[in-house]
Amino acid sequence: MDLSAKKLDVTLGGRRVLHGIDAVFRPGQVTAVLGANGSGKTTLLRTLAGLQKSEHGSALFGDRVVTDLDPRERARTIGYLPQDGAVHWNITAGDLVMLGRTPHRSPFAGPSPADWEAVVTAMSATATLEFADRTATELSGGERARVLLARVLAGQPQWLLADEPLASLDPAHQLDLLAQFRRLADEGIGVVMVLHDLIHAARAADAVLLLHEGRAVAFGPAAEILAPDPLRAAFGVEVMAVEDRQGIALPILTGRSPR
Ligand SMILES: Nc1ncnc2c1ncn2[C@@H]1O[C@H](COP(=O)(O)OP(=O)(O)OP(=O)(O)O)[C@@H](O)[C@H]1O
């Protein structure tokens, strides 16, 4: 089912930070949300995940308002990977990933074989099985980020909303994560990720939503949106397209646009 924003206005601390966002995200696609710092990307993701109320308009899963979903159902449906990657509990990585199964488990039952299988699958996919017995707070930032992704994947959500998931990863793990997102999309999951890297977005996203000062300024196929005019409007930068070996036009930054 689609996840969508319908005329979404969000106000934080008395200031409107999202203005009338209309966008329909499709399952089976990877969508990248790009925009300058403070343009509203995190706020949009949190609102789509049902973690932030809108002032007007709604985030919808199919035709149901996301914040009206029962919390357990919402947690099974929409996985949210926040930006900061903090862990505040003194627990092992394996136990942390098992927490991702909470919306599937009855409160007093131990983990079922299906829970263990989901945890092992998620930790294998993120190359974190080797950390399973280590305390999560003692992992490096990038290792912890992968464990936190495994926690979300263990919940087997229909939607994965990931806020700057590449931020603390080395180049090889960035590629692994983007390949993992592609596999999830091929399995029918909808992926919406906030990115800052234009080249990763060009290679990894089917669709791109560009935000500028809380407004959606362009939304469509990645090849159309990651082009000079939309990028100038969103970021005030100039790009030059260079084709890679697969024939994908990569937007290479050449400088700031004239003011
Ligand atoms: N709790 C809050 N109270 C008031 N204003 C807030 C609050 N949280 C965020 N904002 C403001 O809302 C705007 C959008 O913030 P948001 O975090 O969604 O931007 P972003 O596009 O994700 O930025 P970045 O690329 O820097 O992560 C910013 O101007 C920010 O200062």
UniProtKB/TrEMBL annotation:
Q: Which InterPro entries match?
A: AAA+_ATPase, ABC_transporter-like_ATP-bd, ABC_transporter-like_CS, P-loop_NTPase
The keyword Mitochondrion is assigned to this record: no
Domain of life, per UniProt, equals: Bacteria
**GO molecular-function terms, A-Z:** ATP binding; ATP hydrolysis activity
The entry's keywords: ATP-binding, Nucleotide-binding, Translocase, Transport
Q: Which residues form the ABC transporter domain?
A: 3-238
Check the record and name the SMART domains matching this protein: AAA (SM00382)
Q: What's the name of the protein?
A: ABC transporter ATP-binding protein
Q: Which organism is it from?
A: Stakelama tenebrarum
